[in-house]
Amino acid sequence: MISFEHATKEFDGGVVAVDDLTLDIPAESFTVFVGPSGGGKTTAMRMINRMVTPTSGTVRVDGRDVAGLDATRLRLGMGYVIQNGGLLPHRTVLDNVATVPVLSGDSRRSARRTALGVLERVGLGASLANRYPAQLSGGQQQRVGVARALAADPPILLMDEPFSAVDPVVREELQTEMRRLQSELRKTIVFVTHDIDEAVTLGDRIAVFGPGGRLRQYDAPDVVLASPADDFVAEFVGRDRGYRGLSFRSASDVPIHEIRTVTTESVGEATLGESGWALVVSDDGRPLGWVDAAGVAKVRGGSAVSAAIAAGGSLFPLGADLRQALDAAISSPSGIGVAVDADGVVRGGVLGTEVLAGLSDQRRSEDATRERTEFGEAER
Ligand SMILES: Nc1ncnc2c1ncn2[C@@H]1O[C@H](COP(=O)(O)OP(=O)(O)OP(=O)(O)O)[C@@H](O)[C@H]1O
Known about the structure:
Layout: E1 2-10, E2 16-25, E3 30-34, H1 41-48, E4 56-61, E5 64-65, H2 71-76, E6 78-82, H3 93-103, H4 108-121, H5 138-150, E7 156-160, H6 168-185, E8 188-193, H7 196-202, E9 205-210, E10 214-219, H8 221-226, H9 231-237, H10 241-245, E11 261-263, E12 277-281, E13 287-292, H11 293-300, H12 305-308, E14 315-317, H13 322-330, E15 336-340, E16 346-351, H14 352-379
Parallel strand pairs: 3-8, 3-9, 6-7, 7-8, 11-12, 14-15
Antiparallel strand pairs: 1-2, 1-4, 4-5, 9-10, 12-13, 15-16
Helix pairs in contact: 3-4, 3-5, 4-5, 13-14
Bound molecules: adenosine-5'-triphosphate (ATP).
Keywords: ATP-binding, Nucleotide-binding, Transport
Region (Disordered): 361-380
InterPro entries: AAA+_ATPase (IPR003593), ABC_transporter-like_ATP-bd (IPR003439), ABC_transporter-like_CS (IPR017871), P-loop_NTPase (IPR027417)
């Protein structure tokens, strides 16, 4: 556990970067510090490994005040990942990753063996081990940065905007990878970002920092989205927070309806009413797009099927959340969201109105539970 107790940092010149921060970070949790630039996130994180000394207040790791610990030993017990990986340019990937185990006393040989294992763990094969950082893509460099931080198997991982220099697609891959790693490794992770979407995707808990280095809210991401502590947090999490909050709600109660499907060969034979749609599926049952009466007429007139169908919307994988269900419905030209199984085969359709009805049901039952709890507490 990492605890901040009234920690304040005022730099020379009077800038208060972190103002009276009190915060407990449970062991094995994924905690994200998020907020606009200059809000003190990095400064707060650096108090943990003593790169910054608080002007007042205390930071404890497992109950021990870090001010009383040897800084080098403290840092060897904490992986540290920064933007672009922070790799040493003149060392190979393998030696970059082996650095910390060597510093911790391992022989070079054993450290390299460890490094190979960790590289594999973050999705990089041995084929990249002998390259230099400049010979890697941005995403690969970032993975090496994570591997290096994990190489000595530290219980704590500090990550400062590690994915902000890579493009959105690679970034999403790295986020998925990070979640997978965390589910296997159960480290205590503190992650800094200014991107609320990244924070909500990754964090078990998120700490929202505001101007002047003041912590505004510290809660689970669904709580921050549903109940921002103040106007600053509401504005920061964005106007579509209600929609994004749906991603924390299960869609298992949303009804899946049978939908009309046609194969590419049978499009021309379909009879559709004026407002009717059919889903065109491949021979193995995957969705290809929607066709209406006008599309059917085109095919009968000799058009290729591909030219007659409207691209489908996003898909709703069975078991996914309300956000994916609603998005599938509202992005579909027919208004029916296509539900698919793990193999991508069509299993039916979902309706936007029913997704919203499902949301209302969930809220009603939450309210009822809350009332029961409050009533129960009042009686005691
Ligand atoms: N070494 C320093 N000396 C003086 N002021 C500093 C120093 N480091 C940071 N600051 C100031 O402290 C404030 C908080 O900076 P910090 O880097 O912690 O914010 P941040 O939330 O991490 O922002 P960013 O996302 O831009 O990195 C800023 O006003 C910054 O200019």
